[in-house]
Amino acid sequence: MSARTPVTILTGFLGAGKTTLLNRILTEQHGRRIAVIENEFGEVGIDHELVVNTDEEIFEMNNGCICCTVRGDLIRILGRLMKRRDKFDRVLIETTGLADPGPVVQTFFMDDDMKEKFVVDAIVTVVDAKHILLHLDDSDEAREQIAFADVLLLNKCDLAEPAGVDGLERRLRGMNALAKIHRTTHGAVDLEKVLAVGGFNLDHAMELDPHFLDGETGDGHDHHHHHHDEEIASVGIEAGGDVDGRKLNAWLSELVRTKGQDIFRTKGVFALAGNPDRIIFQGVHMLIDGANGGPWGERPRMNRLVFIGRNLDREALNAGFRDCLA
Amino acid sequence: MELKQFAASTANDHVLGLSWSADGERLAAAPSEGPILVLNRQAALVGELSDHGLGNGAAVFHPDAGSLATCGTDGCVRLYDDVSPFARPVEISLGKGWIERLGWSPDGRHLATAIGKRLVILDAGGAPVCEFGPHKSSVCDFAWNPREPREITSVCDGGAHLWRLGHDAPFARFDWGGASLLAKWSPDGRWVVTGDQTPSVHLYDLTRDYPLHIQGYETKVKALAFNSASRKLATGGGKLVTLWTCTGKTGPEGTIPRQLQGHTGDCLALAYRPGSDWLASGGVDGRLILFEPDSSAQPRASQRLGSAVTCVAWHPRDPLLALGTEAGEIVLVEVA
Lengths: 326, 336
Fold this sequence. Notes:
The structure holds 2 protein chains of 2 kinds. Chain A is of the alpha/beta class. Chain A has 2 domains: 5-201, P-loop containing nucleotide triphosphate hydrolases (Rossmann fold), CATH 3.40.50.300; 215-322, Hypothetical Protein Yjia, Chain: A,domain 2. Helices cover 28% and strands 29% of the residues of chain A. Chain A has helices at residues 18-27, 72-81, 101-110, 112-117, 133-136, 140-148, 162-175, 192-195, 245-259, 314-322, and strands spanning 5-12, 34-39, 51-54, 58-60, 69-71, 90-94, 118-128, 151-155, 180-183, 232-240, 263-271, 277-284, 287-295, 302-310. Chain A is globular and about 55 Å long. By secondary structure, chain B is mainly β. Chain B has a domain at 222-336: 7 Propeller (Methylamine Dehydrogenase, Chain H), CATH 2.130.10.10. Chain B is built from no helices and 30 strands. Chain B has strands spanning 3-10, 15-20, 26-31, 36-40, 45-49, 56-61, 68-72, 76-80, 90-93, 99-104, 110-115, 118-123, 128-132, 141-145, 148-164, 172-185, 191-196, 201-205, 210-214, 223-226, 232-236, 241-245, 258-260, 267-272, 279-283, 287-291, 301-304, 309-314, 320-325, 329-335. Chain B is globular, with a radius of gyration of 19 Å. The N and C termini of chain B lie close together (6 Å). The model of chain B has no long low-confidence stretch (mean pLDDT 96). The A-B interface holds A 49-50, 52-53, 55, 57-63, 70, 72-73, 75-77, 80-81, 83-86, 111-113 and B 12-14, 16, 32-33, 54-55, 73, 96, 98, 100, 116, 137-138, 140, 157, 177-179, 197-198, 219-220, 326, 328.
């Protein structure tokens, strides 16, 4: 497979500052040639030859299952752009403020042509630090955009009280333990932090906030201490000991089959019995992807697993994983 | 049987489509970017037509006259009465959006195109005739009824719609719920076939108002072709070319297809020679393969090109094939 073109998915609730960030990305001298797929109602407001407007078109692949939906407009537009001789280095997809990021991400996992030519680098969600609390409790879209993110940009920090931003960051961390959080004003952020994230790179699958899984080890207990959001939350599991691969496969398969619609992101690293190498994996809804992560080396053989989702049953997840230990 | 490459040219970019003029003396090539090329049958350049901004869509000769229609991502259709270096086209702007497909009606009186969710019908001079829609999603493809030049099918998310000029509502719909991306109408007017986003085809028997769903393809079906007699439907979804027999009361229902081998990469283009059962197939593996499926499932002849073969077009009369590649080659091959 030839080198795949990285894709950044830019989400954020209405008025969060996506367009400001997009303008910054397009005007900064970073040497990258970026194709921008912008939602039909957006307004980039600058002259950029590779900005393409589109209207979200959701294609169902399997009887309405949300885990099996893709964005038909992206398949058509990106498929066509990739036929140009004068190609581009990167794709940036701006979603509408009310978009579900799921079908956008799934497009690059479920469509063979997209999978062959593109790789998702990261989902970057811009959050209005002053106003997001008005939407978090009553907007599924706002919560899901946060849950899916690899990077959360707390924007407009200059307009919010510092203590309020601290509290917001704690709440977002409780919802999404995997995302890197950066505080910004007017979308000013080092572009490497949004354009070279490697959020779907399995090598980075377990680059977690080191405090997230702090605490006891070896018993498969949940060590999440910052739970503030009852509906969407992260559940982290850390356990020493080896895992029975057959049991783990059966458990994960059953879990994504029955709960996949509520599990937005999954990442994990496992020590399989009889295997000297780390097994790393990640998932989006029902789509899971695993790989050999190389030898454990000097690192302790420690299983680590994180789920981000809606109405996750912590006890059941812990019990299910404990049953997989060899 | 032997394939003899006797002429070539270059478009410098991915060739999206090729179209022969009715008299077989001109070949139009639409590259992804850059001017649309008009070649003679020795592949010599006889005309370069303006490109369509960010990218071209298609270039299609009129079925009887020498005029040519082109389109692209600038939302415009251009009609050229002649393709000389000084040609001045009629330009029709259909608004903001990409136009990727054009199709003349079999009698040459109408030109169909699609922009966004609209299927637009123009007359042969470029004047608007009507629009069909709205569709649930962008119109992905369309095909005229070869037997009834006032009927056309469009496909999009949801399935296929069948329209008749002069009527606002479709006279038939085949809603299967998923997205259809390609459309062909059999020469006898009986079958409408779609290639779908899922690795499948839907085949609609208009005589029985009956849909068939055919699954089991390795990939999305990217190429469809009926032979002139409408007896055979060739489908390309993966490395194998799968051949269905569309005869009898039930067509391919319950039958076992023939599978034609030879490609080592996905099949991208299929075309039956007019009036013959020679089937040309182009693939990601850079191979042009000629099959004669009635006698063998193996290639009768093949030729390797420098990059993926993206389109093939038979000369209207002679045993001559034009093919385009991902790298921009345009090659003329004679079947000897």
